[in-house]
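User: For documentation purposes, I need each entry recorded in a consistent format: the amino acid sequence on its own, followed directly by the corresponding structure tokens. There are two entries in this batch. Please keep commentary to a minimum and don't merge the entries.

Assistant: Recorded as requested. Entry 1:
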Amino acid sequence: MNTYILAKHLHLTAVVLTIALFLLRYFWLLRGSGMLQQKWVKIVPHVVDTVLLASAVALCLLIPLNPLQHPWLWQKILLVILYIFTGYFVLKRAQGLLSKWLGFGVAMACLAMAGKMAVSKQALLML
């Protein structure tokens, strides 16, 4: 299997895992579950997000794509970073139910827009 295909599959697997883990942890948060205190729950999502970002960089180098020359790509990268920070806010810092739901909505919107850009190769904002 060539390097590009391997990096692409790794990236797509990390995308699915990061979404699944975020949804699971959010569900546990709303339920007040003790599962959020499990050691693997505190480690694995960070590893997955690191793989997600590292595989994105690898794909940019393999294709090659310069994010500064492709607005859709730098906007997608910013949305993924915003998703990670918003997810952190929702799971660790948000106090009330409203802020948790709003943060969750923002995180999901970031992922949806990043996914749309990944498929369409079209930027949301033409700056």
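Entry 2:
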Amino acid sequence: MVGVKKSDSEWREQLSADEYRICREKGTEPAFTGKYWDTKADGIYRCRCCGEALFGSDTKYDSGSGWPSFYEPTAEDRVAEHRDSSHGMVRTEVTCKRCGSHLGHVFPDGPQPTGLRYCINSASLALDEKS
């Protein structure tokens, strides 16, 4: 269920061109280029589009992929999963459940306790650092 709805022009006004391409058009930033891929700061990673708390820094780990990686969201009802068969692959897309923003993909090759790797674009996130 999507809780935040905006027109295309409202999203374009709110987001940079790159953020719009990634969040609203399901784009991907190049590996090792995003703002948060190697960030170690404590805090909550929020949806860039609506501010929903999505991932905690305590679940972030270095997957070696070049994108911020987490082994679980802050709560199961914060993200939605969708089958993605684009680019000749079958993957599981992850979106913000509140606003539908594209976040990245989830893979079954992460660490315990979940065994999952939520591979998320930095442009889809805003870090709310703990002080």
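Summary note for entry 2:
The chain has one domain: 8-129.
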